[in-house]
Amino acid sequence: MITAPADRYLAIFERWLAKRLDELHDRPQIASIIEQYATWHHLSRLRKRVGITNTDIAARDARQQITEAGKFLIWVEDHAHLTVETFSQLHIDEYLTDAVSTRYEIKNFISWLSRGRSGQRQLYVPKRKAVLPLPALTQQHRLQVIRNAIEFDQVALGTRVAALIHLLWATPLTRLAQLKMDCIDLRPDGMHIALGPTPSAIPEFLAPLFWQHLEDRTNQQTTNVGTDWLFPGYRAGQHLSVPTLQQRFNVLGLDPQRTRNTTLKSLTGQIDVRSLAETLGYAPKTLSAHAERAGIYMGGYTASKRIASVTAEGWEPSAGIMSS
Fold first, then answer.
1. Does the model's pTM come out above 0.70?
2. What percentage of the chain carries pLDDT values higher than 70?
């Protein structure tokens, strides 16, 4: 009998597990082995942590590993036309060839599965191959693009504000284009932007640009008035498209992929993954992967107000911006 959990994160995990097993109801063999793995390997360990350590991160890791184990077994059934009892090391190697990093999360499952078969199957997950560095800008180049976004008055203000959000918080263009007005909040202690559960302070010297955009964001839109989109498109009710955003960024010398990688490298080196994930709206795994690629160990900084100052480090605002 499953007793009621005495920990909030354990309760969330148990509800998630029940839902995940229900999603696998049409694959009974996979559901059975996943239930065993989740119960005897992860759930028992989480219960031992209750009252001793914070179970939040451990529960998140457990969900990731269980999810990836399920994906692997589904691949075994659909691609290799085998079962959990008949796949071999060759299939593990094939599954991981040129794979995204999350596939390597099956390591604990494969180890558990091998031990559970009394050592009769020598299965293992090979060491992940070293990955090439992510394409990035120099910090000097990035600061110059920040300067461009602030000072290029001939460029549409909406483009400059969108560029600053991308430059300071590494917001992916697909999410950037879909931001709404309510993500910006003017408080007694300054202007904030909510890209994740924890809002981040907008640097004081940039607040006038954001405020001006909020006041006049539909100035050039003749058919798209009364919309909630932070960056309205030309068609009524539509936000600005990603291709259009990319094209506009070219004028500022902004390369979205390189800029995003450089910004995340800077942030993951100075702010812990959990706080950063809550502020930027990223998954902790994604930020950990960026830190790993950059060879960075997580810092202990947790204040979300540090983010904008970290990303704009080295930039001195002009008097014109401060007084606008």
1. no
2. 81
